Structure formats: structure tokens, C-alpha cells
Amino acid sequence: MARLSLRDAQARRDRALGGIAPAEFSEALARGMAVLVAFGDGERPTLADLARRLDLPRATVRRALVTLLHLGYVAAEGRTFALTPKVLELAATFLRANPISTVLQPACERLAAELGESCAAAVLEGEDAVMIARAVPHQLLAVGHGVGYRVPALHSALGRVLLADLDETALDQRLANAAEPERTRAAVAIVRTQGWAYVAHEVEPGFHSIAVPVRRWDSAAIAALNIGCGIGRRSPQSMLAEVLTLLRATADELREQLI
């Protein structure tokens, strides 16, 4: 039997510490999912590209690709590969099974139509805030910037609102690898006090956004809701007045629908 790489051995130890028995964990499934998420925006990688990106043997990646090809999630063209629309079924299953998304999507659409700016709702996933609902008025949605799009939690208004609802132990874990942990902690403390987050130029130069928590009946923040746009389109003063007022009112209305 081939020896485990140092990375795989450490991952196995981490799973064991987390209470997962080796016999109950499917390495093949985990690597297949890793191959799926390794495709970059708009690219068609080769087998060698994916193996290098994942730091896995080519034979391992090839087996995953052959399986994904057979299942219809990946298509091959010469030596390159691309995801097929069938991968959207995975996201669609989540959205159908997640009542939060079905409540938040109409709210995003209303806000986008009223303000003429993009509106998104997101939840925490690892080090990112992941959008589970999004609406953009009167324009095509940019590829890669819809449902499932990620922004860094530490540097986005969506992420900071969600971080502000964590307890200190969980927040410490999130800040463990931050480049400027104390600065980020101070920013999160401000969000806790004021109840909203405003971020400019951090996720993208010339872009700013403002976000509020969406809370359920027990006051737990289950998502964050934001409006984002170029600073040239709407002033910071407008974001902190008209936009913030409307976001807060919408979040209050949503609370009654989230059990």
C-alpha cells in the first residue's frame, strides 16, 4: 500500500481528532469533490493543471475525472476539461432544501429594484462569506458573481456582520490566520456596537458595500444582507443614510418569516 503524503496523513489525524473514524470517511469522494471545486473562473484545465493545483497524483485525479465525466458533471475536449451545467443541480438542491434562501431571494430582488444597486445575502463558510441569494437590477449578472460567489469574511461588509455574531472563541479561530488580527478585531467590535458594517475599497478598489444581520426569532444572525456598488454610483453618505435605513427595515420584516 502506498504511503500517505504528509498532508494526507495530517488530514487523517485531524479527522480522527474530530471523531471521524477512518473507515467512515471516503477519501475517493473527498478527492472527487476537491477536483470539482478546483476549476477556476472561465478556464479549461488539463489533468496536469488539476493535479498540480490539488497536489495529488495524476492517477488519483484521473480516476476522479473519469467518474465525473461518466456522471455528466465534467466534459472533455482534447486534453482539457470543463464543468457542465449539471453541477448546478448541486446548488439547486441546496437552494430548494434551504428555506432561508427562498425567503431572502425575493427580498434581494425588491431591494435591488428599489435602490438600483446589487443586493446579496450571505452566510459564513470557512474563511468566506458565501452568497445564497443575489439580485442585480437592469443588467446581466457578471459570471462568477451570483449565488455561490465568495468574498473574504475578514474584509467584506457581509463577512464582518457575520463575524460580529460569533462568540469570542469562534472569532479567535477565524482570526488565527488574519494578516492584521487586531485591526480586524477592532472593526468587528465596531460592528457589534453599531449593528451594521460598511466597507470601502477592501474587497475591490472603487467598490463599497453596507450590510446588516438578518436575525431569526431567537436573535441569532443566520445571514447578512447587503447593498454594494461602485463609489462613483452612490456616495458613502447615501449608503449610511437611505440604504442603511432600507436594509434595516427589510431585515426587521424578514425576522418574522424566519422561524
Q: What is shown here, in short?
A:
The protein is α+β, with helices and mostly antiparallel strands. The protein has helices at residues 6-17, 27-37, 47-54, 58-71, 88-97, 99-115, 157-163, 168-175, 181-194, 236-255, and strands spanning 74-77, 80-83, 118-125, 128-135, 150-152, 197-200, 207-215, 221-230.
Please outline the helices and strands.
Blueprint: H1 6-17, H2 27-37, H3 47-54, H4 58-71, E1 74-77, E2 80-83, H5 88-97, H6 99-115, E3 118-125, E4 128-135, E5 150-152, H7 157-163, H8 168-175, H9 181-194, E6 197-200, E7 207-215, E8 221-230, H10 236-255
Antiparallel strand pairs: 1-2, 3-4, 3-8, 4-5, 6-7, 7-8
Annotation field: number of helices = 10
Order of strands, main sheet, comes to 5-4-3-8-7-6
User: Structurally, how many domains make up the residues?
Assistant: 2
Q: What is the CATH domain class of the largest domain?
A: Alpha Beta
